Amino acid sequence: MTETDEGFQPGLMMDSPLTITAILRRAAQFFPEKEIVSRLNDGSIHRYTYRDLYPRVVRLMNVLRDLGVRPGDRVATFAWNSFRHLELYFAVPCLGAILHTVNIRLFPEQLAYILNHAGDRLMFADKSLAGLLAPLQAELKSIDSYVLMDDRGDTSAALPTRVWDYEELLASATETGLFPGFPETTAASLCYTSGTTGEPKGVLYSHRSVYLHAMGCCMADSFAIREREVVLPVVPMFHANAWGLPFACAMTGANQVLTGSHLLGKPLADLIEQERVTWAAGVPTVWNLLYQHLKLHSHDLSHLKVIVVGGAAAPRFLIENYARDFGITMLHAWGMTETSPVGSVCRLKAEMESRPEQRRLEVQVKQGIPVANVEMRLLGEEGEELPWNGKQAGELAVRGPWVSRSYYNNSEPNAAFTEDGWFRTGDIATIDASGYMEITDRKKDVIKSRGEWISSVEMENATMMHPTVLEAAVVGRPDDLRGESPVVFVVLRQPEQAFRKQDVLDVLKLRFARWQLPRMADIHFVASLPKTGVGKLDKKALRRKLTE
Ligand code: AMP
To answer: How far away, in angstroms, is 335 Cα from ligand 1 center?
Structure first.
């Protein structure tokens, strides 16, 4: 008997299944008046409530049945954030089928690979995006037909053939129907991660994992989503379940504001102001650009209290400036597609609140402590466990009920999933004595110079500490003498500013030893940095640039 088995008696408590159906019912039953607001791509606003959502989900389930979707079938979406995408978030899994959210920013070859690998039966696409699928249609062997959703965007591109109109289908469907029963471990949704090597890999979430993850997000010391919040996910619904926010909102009855196509700067500020958003989440670039906008233009964002920032490291100045200039708390969070995605959230413990500002910031820039149910470990080069002293860096490994155990339909052995039941994240981190984890790099991004590690993330953050710098990226390039040498790309807030390479070096000298510094020729001023499909720095593209 293991430690966990001891004292276990089956059947003591009710095993009510933890399903997305239960989340949907709760939203409709207890929070019928709460709103789902969608900004369509022509700037107009669509507004309805959980009371309206529910019968449309039932109709959609009937549509899916009529189109031949059976439990276990994969149904793809190719869409921005909107109420229709939300309806699919519920209808597909509630039917026992699998919602496959496809990243609209992938290259055509990746799209074809993913859609064929998933074997999707049916594709729901925003009309303005469907043009991207038309040239691929002949290659997409498993998709029978396409359902188009009018997102009021540009529809000039040629559309796929064999199409249905979403609203016409819904209008012709009946509003009553059965919710099938199934075990909580039934697959609910699927998301592919582009990964670092090889083909994209699918992460298959279960009803149980989605449910528990949503509960994890709602906990007061994690995201604290609750009924009174107006939540704006600036994270796409085609990436990692929009951080689980659609489910967490429905579970608690929070209002949700859906952005349509990706919003930045002014339109984002306008939406936050108009809808009195209280809680928002997104990657650092989004908040950095919003901050630049807010410094120059006046908006009433007094309702916005919390911004969750994750997906990439949140720079210190951003956390500091939002708090100082706008009284907004930035919560730093870490996660991956494989972790549903939320793994850790950085909230100060009560005893830290009274520390001086700079010492509080030292904690806030970390990625935080694991959300309840997630466990963490640091692994050394030989797979040995490293101590939590805030100094020794190792590979972060995690486990928990919403952490993936394998990749979908992939029988290749994968070293990321260890025999003793942990997932090796590929992130390099430290954990301090209070349990706060800090990502120091991605395993593949660490720069090894003269046999020692230089954290690319630390160097980026140090560069961005200077007020004239808008963004910075650091990658390693092979160097005969040093093994690898850092290359720094800098975007200035105003291109005409007099900021020279020597100034960058002077900033870095404050935090880095001489041997770690980039050579003068390895500092580049650029107009912008390449980003991945989900708005993160695309370091692969930067490395390619170096070899061109
Ligand atoms: P994805 O699966 O595309 O969401 O990417 C997950 C990866 O993003 C993680 O393995 C990290 O490398 C990175 N990441 C996510 N959140 C953070 C964060 N708060 N700080 C630094 N890196 C992050």
So the answer is: 6
Q: Is the peptide bond before 341 cis (omega within 30 degrees of 0)?
A: yes
Helices (H) and strands (E) in the chain, counts: 15, 25
CA-wise closest residue to 149 among 173, 132, 124: 124
Band (7; pLDDT cuts 50, 70, 90): low
For a ligand 1 pocket test, name from 103, 334, 342, 436 the mutation site with the most ligand atoms within 8 angstroms of its C-beta: 334
Residue-wise pLDDT for 91-140, tens only, equals 999 999 999 999 998 889 889 999 999 999 999 999 999 999 999 999 99
Residue with tokens 């690898």: 484
CA angle 412, 538, 391 (to 5 degrees): 80
Angle made by CA atoms 322, 437, 531, in degrees to the nearest 5: 60
pLDDT category of residue 412 using cuts at 50, 70 and 90: confident
* The model scores a pTM over 0.90: no
**Is residue 236 in contact with ligand 1, taking CB distance under 6 Å?**
no
Q: Flag whether pLDDT at 1 surpasses 50.
A: no
Q: What is the DSSP string of 439-507?
A: EEEETTT-EEETTEEE-HHHHHHHHHTSTTEEEEEEEEEEETTTEEEEEEEEEESSTTS---HHHHHHH
* Residues annotated catalytic, as ranges: 193, 338, 448, 453
Tell me if 81 sits within 8 A of 259, measured CB to CB.
yes
Instruction: Find the length of the chain.
Output: 548
In degrees and rounded to multiples of 5, residue 136 shows phi and psi of -95, -10
